Amino acid sequence: MAVKLTVYAGSSLLPGDAEKLRESADTLGVDLVMQPPIIRGDLLRTPTEGRWNNRTLILDGQFGQNLSVSVTEIREYLGRGLYLAGASSMGALRAVECRTLGMVQHGWVCEQYRTGRVEADAEVALLMDPITSEALTVPLINVRWLLRELGERGELDAATAATALEVAHRVSYRARIPEALANAFRRTLPADTAGLLARQLEPDALPHWDRKRLDGIDAVEAELHALARFPSHA
């Protein structure tokens, strides 16, 4: 029996990530179907040819320009006995909201919302290119992750990290392009700290601390390996 994973993803995965995940799926014998960021109505139209050999994973979803996937849709989908998981961005928000309905959570971003360390939906928001789905601005949740990592490595003390997070928070998600964020740090923080953070905002550095991206890759890999262990999959 064929096994299939449908993934709704946009800016949380780079084009190169998607290619590597397709190669992984081929190796594991899983049919990986990549869909654009989910909007209202998509989930209940997702083709499913079996309850146990098909899984759906939401990473990214639209809001504002289109209605977002709703809890009501998710309740109906799960009520059919189907499998649904979420991570990274819109998927993380809905996975935490719908965990008592049976939606599965993956990753650090989900953990922040589940534990209440983060409450605002806006922390995962960003602007993306409507054609390529490439992220144009930096979501606050990623800045939060970066500051934590720098603190754990002893490169940033807690008070300075808190100030840097507040600086990033004051910049609207629509205006939080890397250059603007680096300039905001330079105006407020000591020169050495601002320089440290500005280097992390260089194009080559950004993907390495993109927590939404890292959660997305991990979630897809976890679901692929789970499907590869499907009992009838041989």
TrEMBL record:
It holds the Pfam family TfuA. Residues 60-176 form the TfuA-like core domain. InterPro entries: TfuA_core (IPR012924). This is TfuA-like protein. It comes from Kitasatospora paranensis.
